[in-house]
Amino acid sequence: MSEPRARHCVDRLPPLGLGLAQLGNLYRETTEEEASSAIDTAWGAGIRYFDTAPHYGLGLSEQRAGRFLAGRPRDQFALSTKVGRLLIDNPDGATRRDDQGFDVPAATRREWDFSRDGIRRSIDASLARLGLSRIDIAYVHDPDDFADQALHEAIPALEELREQGVLRAIGVGVNHSALASRFVRETDIDLVMIAGRFTLLDQSALEDLLPAARDRDVGIVAAGVYNSGVLSAPRPPRDAKFDYADAPADLLARAHRIADICETFGVSLPEAAVAFPRLHSAVVSVVVGARNGAQAQATADRAAATVPDDLWRTLLDEGLLREGSLTTAPGE
NADP-dependent oxidoreductase domain: which residues (predicted)? Predict the structure, then answer.
């Protein structure tokens, strides 16, 4: 493979992003007022990166992102969406609700498609829903069961769109670091969005993805930093979730040990969770979801919190972080 290109778009990616899955009515309805407030508050707090996908609410998240970002200076924010699921009209489902976690009518259905034609159709449809003429980043979304097609058809299609200026950067968005590492090694992507695999509780991406990304000059966008909620409160409740399931007792105990140490340094567990991924030099941005203005403001406040260097050293000394987590010198 040739040497990686200079990735100036990665260098300019804002360090904090707002995830917009909840603007697609994830789990329950998000009102128009809540959705508008989430973006308005984020903007007011200085957040300039917004991440969405057709999957989120069968296009609702993209539509709301476009509507509530309209009128903002286009050169002042970055927006990413995803490809791999086409939205197909489904009139028979108009009286039913979506069965994939979003509280929206099932009048549209998702169809996996990582072909060249499918990718181009997906981008065209996203541009229409967003009301934009270009997209900053397009991620291949959850290609776990279609890895070969995604590698050999989806990525080349995105490369063409990048060359044409329709996209500024391309990447892959996944939950598993081994698959992401394959894309880093075998393609010319700019970014990887990895969910839940480089967090205070799970640093498994250190085994493969993060070293590969550094070698290939691929930027890492860390998502799922709360691991489905277990790290989202100062003290995890007994029924806290980890990767969408009930958190095991030993993992809950570990989270409480981390929280104990955070408190001795005047830092909350969620503040540490947001700050941690940026300690690795391959990580260029952290994306955190929000449903409303209060949550968006909380994200901005947590990202702005000062975390003492000694906190990270203590977590390392106590065996609560893996060696290699801190490749950016503390304090940078």
Answer: 15-311
